[in-house]
Write a structure and sequence with these properties.
- The chain has 264 residues and is an alpha+beta fold.
- The chain has one domain (22-262): Thrombin, subunit H, CATH 2.40.10.120.
- It has seven helices and 13 strands.
Length: 264
């Protein structure tokens, strides 16, 4: 018996210490490219996340992150530096994407993954600012690539006055309000999607497919003068407060069907 146990022990695979190190390496590499988008005024209230796609200060985030925020918005880097957001270059509500310009240049930009390199079941890594906790790292898998939402969910969104369309990446990376606009990257640090929403009480989460982002970048004049971000009081903070209330009352998860919510 002892001989058999010894034989089984020699045949068992040894733990792979590099498995976790890979996530750390990717997070370290993309972290400087990820920013927290904060509303200026009183306390620095976090409103969402963004990331650089060009060295000259082009930042990607979600439409709902900047929708109706006050004019003054700043980007907080990993090293604590605060950059003034000069305005928006594009606002794509159906895909929940937006392009911003921040002051300065020389920033580390993330690479977009080729469409044919995206694989269902591959590991995804997220770096963002859920609940204002900068540089938080999450992992999961790419659960599905979808051309659009199911028709029933599109009808529900339409009745609620929301616009939403694909292509989408469905994923299982855990996130929370404030992680909207976070990059979803593969093990090579390439952007696969832009995190934007999920169903309460489930691991069904969504992000805009990188192809939607690629199309927005292609049709946008990235050298144009940025437009001022809306002067209204942030609707997102009110939405976040409601979401927190719903999240705190976990009983609702069992009493009613799950509802898709933004992650801002």
């Amino acid at each position: 018996m002892l001989v058999l146990l010894a034989l089984l022990a020699t045949q068992a695979p040894a733990p792979d210490p590099a498995a976790g190190a890979d996530v750390n390496a990717v997070a370290e590499r993309i972290g400087p490219s990820v920013v927290r988008l904060a509303i200026v005024g009183g306390a620095e209230e976090g409103n969402g996340t963004g990331f650089f796609v060009r060295e000259d200060g082009i930042v990607v985030t979600n439409h709902h992150v900047i929708d109706d925020v006050p004019e003054k918005l700043m980007a907080v880097l990993r090293d604590g530096r605060k950059l003034r957001v000069l305005g928006s270059l594009a606002d794509d509500e159906p895909h929940d994407l937006a392009l911003l310009r921040v002051e300065g240049g020389g920033y580390p930009a993330l690479t977009l993954a080729p469409s044919d390199a995206i694989r269902v079941g591959e590991r995804l890594i997220l770096v963002g600012s859920p609940l204002g906790f900068d540089q938080s790292v999450g992992t999961g898998i790419l659960a599905a690539v979808r051309a659009d939402y199911p028709e029933e969910w599109k009808k529900r969104d339409a009745r609620a006055g929301r616009k939403g369309t694909g292509p989408l990446v469905q994923h299982t990376v855990t996130s929370a309000p404030g992680a909207s606009g976070s990059p979803l990257v593969d093990d090579m640090g390439r952007v696969v999607g832009v995190n934007h929403s999920g169903f309460d009480g489930t691991d069904i989460n969504f992000g805009a497919h990188v192809d939607a982002l690629r199309a927005l970048l292609a049709k946008t004049d990235l050298n144009a003068t940025p437009k001022r971000i809306g002067p209204n009081v942030s609707r997102n903070l009110i939405v976040s407060a409601v979401l927190f209330a719903v999240f705190g009352g976990g009983l609702f998860v069992f009493l009613r069907p799950p509802r898709r919510r933004p992650r801002s």
